[in-house]
Amino acid sequence: MTDPDPSPPGHHGARLSFQGRMAYGDYLSLDPILSAQHPLSGAHDEMLFIIQHQTSELWMKLALHELGAAREAIAAGRLHESFKMLARVARIMEQLNSAWDVLRTMTPSEYQQFRPMLGESSGFQSWQYRMIEFVAGNRNPALIGPHAHRPELADALRDELARPSLYAVVLGRLAEAGFDVAPPADVAAPTRPDPAARAAWGAVYADPQRYWSLYELAEKLVDFEDYFRRWRFNHLTTVERIIGFKRGTGGTAGVDYLRRMLDVVLFPDLWDLRSAL
């Protein structure tokens, strides 16, 4: 059957009419995405602020997709399958780091033109960021509070706290390999240094050829946290550059709060063992 709408010469075979066909914007649902920016002021830089945070949330959505799949693969013993997912999460964190470079082109004076429009909204209230921390093992039930007005989000975070974290599942693989490692007694508690787990990882790193899959899994987790730490540091630097030591719009101590967050370690056993090797 002859194509009723062939491409005109000189367009390299590209279709130029999409009446009744799936087009690029249709597949990606671009109309609602590109119409989701609603600045509340006339400030030029407010569009930058909105898009930077919206795109970060999209990357976080993908990170959660990959972390969830990686956790399932690890729990099922399919470690090699999880490596690609965890590597992708590290690259996602790299993208999130690059986003701060764009936001830092905004000066303090430019930010002040629309900051009052934010009210008490703050990145501290990002439920996806909180979910990433909960999945990784940095868990604090009190931090569900900012989402209590959205029951579906609060319930999703509570459900996550009822599941073993990514690192708890990894500890299960250590136990499966014969190491004397016990799962966390309280899955809702944050990951804490565990001498038994650190000793097990020490054995893995002492003989990587014997425990190659566990060795590579550990390094994938370290890669993830490495980029995650950089994201936190770049967040701190960006905030200090733009608002100095003012309190955050969400009520935190701003820079001082972000500096304290730099001390939070997701996988302490994997960092502590390095001093003993």
UniProtKB/TrEMBL annotation:
EC assignment: 1.13.11.11
Enzyme class label: oxidoreductase
Keyword Iron: yes
Stretches of the chain forming a coiled coil according to its record: none
Record text on cofactor binding: Binds 1 heme group per subunit.
KW Heme (keyword) present: yes
The name this protein goes by in its record: Tryptophan 2,3-dioxygenase
Cofactor list: heme
Species: Paracoccus sanguinis
Record text on subunit structure and interactions: Homotetramer.
GO biological process: L-tryptophan catabolic process to acetyl-CoA; L-tryptophan catabolic process to kynurenine
